[in-house]
Amino acid sequence: MHWFRKDLRLHDNPSLCEALTNCRTFHAVYILDPVSARAAKVSANRWKFLVDCLRDLDKSLRECGSRLHVIRGQPTYVLPKLFQDWNISKLTFECEIEPFGQRRDVAVAVLGEEHGVEVISKPSHTLYDPERIIKSNEGEAPMLIKTFENVIRQMGPPEKPVNAVNKEMFKGCVCPVSNDHSTKFGIPSLDELGYSGCEVTTGDLWVGGEQEAMKRLTELEEKVNSELPIIFIVFTLI
After folding, report:
1. Does residue 60 contact residue 10 with C-beta atoms inside 8 Å?
2. 187 vs 236, higher pLDDT
3. What's the whole-model pTM score?
């Protein structure tokens, strides 16, 4: 089982690749606590962006023969039940970099040990693994930008992205999807999140999802490449 969190993508996702290694049965989950969502002091725009991301991720997983299971509840409450119901032997997720998330992940690791589930997490939210940076700086977090620069200079360039997950990687593993999937594990609506009737003001300006991100990156790359000859000519004239 792969637990999607901030890594709502198939590109450059080391922990997702780990989940699919020697996998016989695969489940993709995203855990959402509706109570916490309703209590969060953020606008409907932010939740609309998340819903976009989840829908896009589910679409990508469908193309690979799987689906995204959106689980409602607290992670430490719902995971043990999923371990038992789905007979999970390995849980993977992206490393957390914030203190609250790190404490939660320690608790999840304990739950995994209690249920005989191997828990594996890999860094991919930042260019460099924060733990490696601290270790390279004699066990302390760099407090100055110059110190940070010296540390990463010694570490060398960031690791190259891993290959994007594709349909071929799902061959040989079963991806169970129930007939009532949309009812039990479907993408939440803004109404469910407590934003019924709230105005979404971003329109098409900020669309969430990996495909939209890849599209904008491609457009940016093409724009930069098209402007390089002009920049070269200007510098040559100077």
Report:
1. yes
2. 187
3. 0.89
